[in-house]
Design brief:
The protein is α/β, with parallel strands linked by helices. About 30% of the residues lie in helices and about 20% in strands. Strands 3, 4, 5, 6, 7, 14 and 15 form a seven-stranded mixed beta sheet that branches.
Amino acid sequence: MSSVRHLVYSRWLFHHTKPLSVNISRLFSTTRSSLTIMPAWVIDKYGSNDVFRFTKNASFPVINYPNEVIVKVQAAGLNPLDVNMRGGYGAATMSMKRDPLNIKQSGSEFPLILGRDVSGVIMECGLDVKYFRERDEVWAAIPPWKQGSLAEFVVLSANEVSHKPKSLSHTEAAAMPYVATSAWSALVNTGGLSKDNCAKKRILILGGSGGVGTFAIQMLKAWGAHVTVTCSQNAERFVRGLGADHVVDYTAGPVEEPLSALEKFDLILDNIGGDTEHWALNLLKPWCGAKYVTLVTPFLQNTDRLGIADGMMQTAATVATKALKHLVKGVHYRWGFFAPSGPALDEIRELVDAGKIRPVVEETFSFSQVPQAFEKVEKGHARGKTVVQFSKGGYDL
């Protein structure tokens, strides 16, 4: 019996909670050895692109909780977060999340597998998983403290997974989960928008041609909002093609001047950061519940620099001070965060299959070209997502 299925069977014997129905035939005809190891791109330390190492002996993921699933990866999307994590960004917070009692030694996260986007096929389900079955095609955004999708298999909680849109290939589907759940978290969870209250609202997206921006444009337009975006002149046609109503070229001069001449906004989504918050909140409608939501926050930088306790205290003080400062002016200041969510992807899937949102894939790479794919993402100024495709055998090396 395979190590994965043996673990599931042992947990059933221990708990005696329900009868176990075991399908002896596996989805993949693999040898016993291939169920303990798998091919993957890993890093053994933080650094630049030369820290990547390909191995055929990465540890096979194991179901440790009854609500988990193992997914065979068909395609993996890359994001700027992956490049930052390769360099150690957020390492202190991620280590605390992986090992809250600080039992393990420093560096225990290695070898680390990057990749936050995945589209693939479910290979194995935990005992408590009811919504998914083996062979289901799924997509997901992987939490940053978990092993990523640049491997043949990945294990996820069922509440982080959603059935893949039927209208998309795995390559197209892998381009969306991270940016989709980030935009959903910022606009819906933090910004309070929904398909029922978004009609005719004026939304400004600062940095509209990147991954989060291109998704947000399409979702907001599907919900009936008026969308203004900032981007470079050579991206104007691109974002208008996604539905943007008004475009301001940030290369033509300070964008606050042309934006100040427009009617004020109900919500601003900031993907740029920097000094934008010094002037952007003046563009909001005062005393109307208008919100400024930024996805560029100092939280992980604070914890990396000051440690977990001091970093969290510094972060709390910063956001509280800024929120109070702007609240007296009649506008709301908020931070948005990437939040993996299967239920959010369920709703996004409906919009995708209805033809209201389409993936934007700029370039694809094979599994053997993962370092080159990272170089592409690291250059910035993307017009869509970079996706790593897996061959039918799971890898192409």
